[in-house]
Design a protein that fits this description.
Layout: H1 6-12, H2 16-34, E1 37-38, H3 39-49, H4 52-62, H5 71-103, H6 109-128, H7 139-142, H8 146-165, H9 169-188, H10 200-215, H11 226-246, H12 265-288, H13 292-303, H14 305-322, E2 335-336, H15 341-365, H16 370-376
Parallel strand pairs: 1-2
Length: about 375
């Protein structure tokens, strides 16, 4: 019998339901970026995971562990890791896709440099320095990277305040109100800062809520009172959907936007949606755990959300280019009348290329998920 690696030990402590929940969320992101579906297909799916990005922030806080390290060191490790990931992958995409654009003669080197810098600075960052945002070649391939930018800025606020907030519910609520209020003020005065600094306080509030629920994990334990958990989960989803019906698109943190639909009150919507939606999603995922084939696929996706975030858009871009298909932009409709065969093939090809690359990434990192799949169905 082989000895356990540090990765195996880490897997032993993971929540499979949370992995499935994250798998559903990343699947929704892949769908939005890879293929448009009909109203009959997308609406039920959208009702369940429209809050995927808010849930990712919530789970980031939920998995917080007080390692007994000094705040400076704990924050340095987290922010350092995120920055390293961001810098490494943005540069990799810049080199690979920049060469691709040059070979195809889509742009000159000057255009590629400006486009890349504009994507890294973000639209709000370009406006701050008075730079008229150029047509961004990297808009399609670096679009999901806003998540890491926002996670970095929000994590700084989170780590500074999490120790204080976990001391009591009263302190958590007080800090949440202050942080949410700061973002609401920024939004009210139409102040948009680079790397999501204007919404970082409200996202940090979501992460703090996740940390609180993580401290009292019995909140997500459906084994103690199954009927009550089912009722509360359904009610949670109902509240989320009512918010979405009343203010379509509000509070879902799509593409990093906040306040675009309902203004400052959207900060409150995001907070509620992140908590209620994540609560429903984890308990819903406990049911999926019992379906072997589906759960295995979703667990795998949930285990690899970050690397999938980083590589799926460049892959999809090249595939759609090769097939002569248009690229998705943020203003495209959520659904279409019918799914064309060419778009479906492009979406499946994205998976066909992405999955082996993620497996190769695992091998290079020394990760072995086979034991996780075995444990989840024994």
């Amino acid at each position: 019998m082989r000895s356990l690696t540090p990765w195996d030990v880490k897997l032993e402590k993971r929540s499979l339901a949370q992995d499935i929940a994250k798998g559903l969320c990343i699947l929704f992101v892949l769908q939005l970026h890879g293929i448009q579906l009909t109203k009959e297909i997308i609406y039920p799916f959208y009702a369940i995971v429209s809050f995927s990005m808010a849930s990712f922030f919530f789970f980031s806080g939920y998995n917080y562990k007080d390692k007994g390290l000094p705040l400076k060191k704990l924050m340095g490790q987290r922010i350092g890791k995120l920055l390293k990931t961001y810098i490494t992958w943005t540069l990799a995409v810049f080199v690979i896709m920049g060469a691709y654009f040059l070979i195809r003669k889509d742009a000159r080197i000057e255009d590629i440099l400006k486009s890349f810098l504009a994507s890294v600075l973000s639209e709000s960052g370009c406006k701050m320095i008075g730079w008229k945002l150029p047509i961004s070649l990297f808009q399609h391939v670096l679009a999901p990277y806003w998540f890491i930018q926002y996670l970095i800025t929000s994590s700084i606020i989170f780590y500074v305040s999490v120790g204080f907030c976990l001391k009591s519910l009263k302190k958590l609520l007080a800090v949440t109100v202050i942080l949410s209020g700061i973002s609401a003020i920024f939004i009210h005065f139409n102040i948009y800062l680079p790397w999501g600094l204007h919404v970082a306080p409200s996202i940090a509030a979501i992460m703090l809520a996740g940390a609180w629920f993580g401290r009292y994990r019995e909140t997500f334990d459906s084994s103690k009172n199954y009927l009550l958990t089912v009722i509360l989960s359904i009610l949670s989803l109902a509240v989320v959907d009512l918010i979405e019906i009343g203010f379509p698109g509000a509070g879902v943190l799509g593409a990093g936007l906040l306040g675009e639909v309902a203004g400052p009150v959207e900060v409150v919507f995001s907070y509620l949606i992140s908590i209620l939606g994540s609560y429903f999603l984890v308990n819903f995922s406990r049911l999926i755990e019992k379906v072997p084939v589906i759960s295995r696929g979703l667990i795998w996706l949930g285990q690899h959300t970050m690397i999938i975030f980083l590589i799926h858009r460049p892959i999809a871009y090249i595939i759609r280019d090769a097939m002569g298909l248009p690229h998705f932009i943020s203003g495209d409709p959520l659904y279409i009348d019918h799914v064309t065969l060419s778009n479906l093939i492009a979406f499946l090809l994205m998976f066909a290329v992405m999955v082996p690359l993620v497996i190769l990434h695992d091998k290079l990192k020394g990760r072995d998920l086979q034991s996780l799949f075995i444990r989840s169905h024994t």
